[in-house]
Design goal:
The complex is a heterodimer of chains A (454) and B (315). By secondary structure, chain A is α+β, with helices and mostly antiparallel strands. Chain A is 32% helix and 24% strand. Chain B has 16 helices and no strands. The chains are: A alpha+beta (454), B mainly alpha (315).
């Protein structure tokens, strides 16, 4: 499916000099390095800065495909925000026995959020939903990211790069624009406050964080201050930043620091990244946090399997995007199925992220399978298992040739008074032949995604 | 503007300016050595260069056995030398990375690119065959940095703190340069004259790009006290103490919109003092004393700027 959308691309490819792609690829690398678009890899010596590999062949999606994706993603985020509001208030969904109450027993449920009323009832202001395609128009959600999803800067920069490298292709294709993203984000952050002209800041863990580039990029795009925890302090139920003209009150914090680290008085007391007292101001309505703390309970892998029911319960609609079958290893029959069929399955840590600590059954060695079996037996609740999907592949430029590689897509949803989506997303590509892991920490790269307007 | 950001911006400009000044000093010192009649022992030639840049205190090798290239390598590439050109540009780039959202894209890229290219250079090749070219390049990159600041930055506080950093660092450098060479400028040397002194004065002027200006203003040959007058008191001379301080005054006037005004008070005083000065008064006080006072007061001014705007203490 979708092959016809590449027709004009193929035609163009045949016309150009065989060297063109190679030269353009080098040009792109040089430009990215010059602009300093890098990410930091944890565990590397001195937090070395690296370029995230960029594939210069775009992923092209038809208008029809995007309609399915965008509607499905918006539906999902709306439902999950309603779910969050409910579980932090009346917990009607438990009373109606749609999902088990045990979901909130894990540590992503933040007791501090109970009975707190948020403007527009929005918890996840910025959400990223990871999607893969298998069959023709079969789209599955792999994961919801409702905490501090990253990657949007790559979406925006990849597009800028493609327009610079291949202007002629943009004449051939009607590609839907995406650069309105930061404007919409700023609008929604403004709406998140009851103040008319709120002072908004972006809170970053600092320049050693892997997504630091994105933080500074977004702050610059929105024209807001990029602050670190030490730039802020709490006084008389308000948050202030230390400026050259004295203290200045802050009304909205777009925070890119995890819940655990935002306030050492409430969460991780060892954190030097956060702001002591922030949560108390937040609870009293003195400041807005985006995303709200405690959204992790809705994007957790244990909650994931109930999202279809959550959508039906709150919206009274059929889910548009499918869920991947998920085996819960605390269930006896699921556990024995998984242990028997491990070589065909993908096993993930329920709390993990970034593709760390995963097992991909089909590509694992006998020893790896045996070792993982032991791990699962020891601590079944730590893991979930899913069938291996035959992910769609997208043409990619590999060592001078055009070859298919597995891809996923993370569109971003922004929620304010209304819910918005820009036509595109972060497309991640597994550059290693046959690999299904697209995470940049595991050798994945990114691509520009073109949503066709006609 | 965030205090932390102001501090970084101030230091970005200082570090770039510092690298440029070091390149200027190396350039003229290297050139002096090209005149056979003036050729000196390496250490005799390079020690003043270390002194001007404040690196004499940390220079690790034996001065007597050091060759020209040892000195240059230390001043340019040594990563353990916190004032080397390499370290300065690294610090400028590190600071820029932390505040890149407050810089224009062009300015950030200029600094980032400066760092990438410097980092890619092979020290041995530069030392062997292209020291002068390298110095020229450093100067040009520094001009490019200020040019991009000038033509792409909104005239907000970020711009003002960058300019402030440049002026503070620059005045410090001019004062140090004069102080290290002050013995040449003592009256008794006037009688000596001769080729040696001529070239030394000449080199002082060239190191701050002031030779052409000097020739325009003073039609006679180079005399030490005219050099002093030009580089300290002339308000139109880009690297003179007077011009730097006039700039700092106007920058601080634009920045000071709230209660903390100690830096502004200080600069007002210093400017008044500079205006009362003339060559014979400086002569009477002693040039060396005048310059050491200036350098100390300049450090004090930098501290006051820090206290007024960048101190991270909750106020």
């Amino acid at each position: 499916m979708g092959k016809h959308v590449y027709q004009k691309y193929n035609f163009w490819l045949e016309k150009i000099h065989p060297n063109t792609l190679e030269l353009k690829k080098k040009e792109a690398e040089l430009l990215f390095k010059k602009t300093g678009i890098t990410f930091n890899v944890y565990g590397d010596d001195g937090g070395a800065e690296r370029l995230i590999p960029f594939d210069i062949i775009p992923r092209i999606l038809s208008k029809e495909q995007w309609t399915i994706i965008s509607k499905g993603v918006l539906q999902r985020v709306k439902a999950l925000n309603l779910f969050l509001h409910d579980i932090y208030h009346d917990q009607q969904i438990f009373k109606d026995n749609i999902v088990p109450k045990s979901l909130i027993r894990h540590n992503q449920f933040r007791i501090e959020m109970v009975n707190l009323d948020l403007p527009n009832k929005v918890y996840s202001h910025i959400s990223g939903i990871d999607i893969v395609r298998t069959g023709k128009d079969d789209f599955f959600v792999l994961e919801d990211n409702l905490r501090t999803p990253s990657g949007v800067s790559y979406m925006l920069d990849n597009r800028k790069m493609m327009m610079r490298l291949f202007p002629e292709l943009f004449e051939e294709y009607d590609v839907a624009p995406i650069d309105q993203y930061s404007e919409i984000l700023l609008k929604c952050l403004t709406e998140s406050s009851t103040k008319k002209d709120p002072t908004i800041v972006l809170l970053t863990p600092g320049s050693l964080n892997s997504a630091y580039y994105e933080h500074s990029f977004l702050a610059q795009q929105m024209g807001i201050e990029l602050v670190e925890g030490s730039d802020l302090y709490v006084s008389k139920n308000h948050v202030f930043m230390k400026t050259t003209q004295g203290p200045r009150q802050v009304d909205v914090i777009y925070r890119r620091i995890d819940d655990d680290f935002i306030d050492p008085l409430v969460f991780n007391s060892n954190s030097l990244l956060g702001v002591p007292g922030l949560m108390s101001v937040y609870r009293n309505g003195g400041v807005i946090l985006a995303n709200a703390p405690g959204t992790g309970v809705a994007d957790d892998k244990a909650t994931y399997e109930y999202v279809p029911q959550i959508i039906e319960y709150y919206l009274n609609e059929k889910p548009i995007l499918k869920n991947v079958t998920t085996y819960r290893l605390t269930k006896k029959e699921d556990l024995s199925y998984v242990l028997t069929n491990l070589k065909d399955l993908v096993v993930k840590e329920a709390e993990g992220s970034g593709g760390y600590g995963m097992l991909i059954g089909p590509s694992a060695s006998k020893k790896e399978l045996a070792d993982f079996k032991e791990k699962i037996k020891k601590n079944p609740s730590k893991y979930i298992a899913q069938p291996t999907l035959s992910l769609s592949r997208s043409p990619s430029f590999i060592n001078g040739n055009v070859e298919p590689r597995h891809v996923d897509l993370r569109p971003f949803v922004i929620s304010g008074k209304r819910t918005h989506i820009v036509p595109g997303g972060l497309c991640r590509v597994a550059l290693k032949k046959g690999s299904l892991v697209v995470n940049s920490s595991q050798g994945g790269g990114t691509k520009d995604t073109w949503i066709l307007e006609s | 503007m965030l205090s932390r950001v102001a501090n970084s911006l101030f230091w970005i400009a200082r570090y770039v300016e510092r690298a440029e000044n070091t390149a200027r000093i190396i350039d003229v010192t290297f050139n002096l050595n090209l005149l056979p009649s003036l050729r000196k022992q390496s250490s005799e030639l390079w020690y003043p260069a270390l002194e001007i840049t404040g690196m004499h205190e940390t220079y690790p090798d034996d001065l007597k056995t050091s060759k020209d290239l040892n000195f240059i390598a230390y001043m340019v590439f040594d990563q353990t030398n916190p004032s080397s050109i390499f370290s300065s540009i690294k610090m400028a780039r590190d600071n820029a990375l932390q505040v890149r959202s407050s810089l224009s894209t062009e300015t950030w890229q200029t600094i980032n690119n400066f760092w990438i290219e410097l980092n890619n250079l092979k020290p041995n090749q530069v030392l062997k065959s292209s020291v002068l070219e390298f110095c020229e390049w450093i100067k040009n990159e520094s001009h490019l940095f200020r040019g991009s600041v000038l033509s792409t930055l909104l005239r907000d506080d970020a711009y003002l703190f960058l300019r402030l950093g440049t002026s503070i660092e620059r005045s410090d450098n001019t004062a140090r340069l004069l102080d290290v060479k002050y013995h040449l400028l003592l009256p008794k040397h006037e009688k000596v004259g001769g080729a040696l002194d001529y070239y030394e004065w000449n080199s002082i002027l060239r190191s701050v790009s002031a030779l052409e200006a000097y020739q325009k203003i003073y039609k006679e040959g180079i005399t030490p006290w005219s050099v002093v007058e030009l580089l300290i008191l002339n308000p139109d001379m880009p690297r003179s103490l007077m011009m730097c301080y006039n700039d700092i005054l106007s920058l601080l006037q634009s920045l000071t919109r709230w209660k903390k005004k100690s830096a502004l008070g200080h600069i007002n005083q210093k400017i008044k003092y500079l205006h009362q000065m003339n060559i014979s008064k400086i002569y009477k006080k002693g040039l060396h004393e005048f310059l050491t006072d200036f350098i100390d007061e300049n450090i004090h001014l930098s501290n006051l700027i820090h206290d007024d705007f960048m101190s991270n203490q909750i106020r």
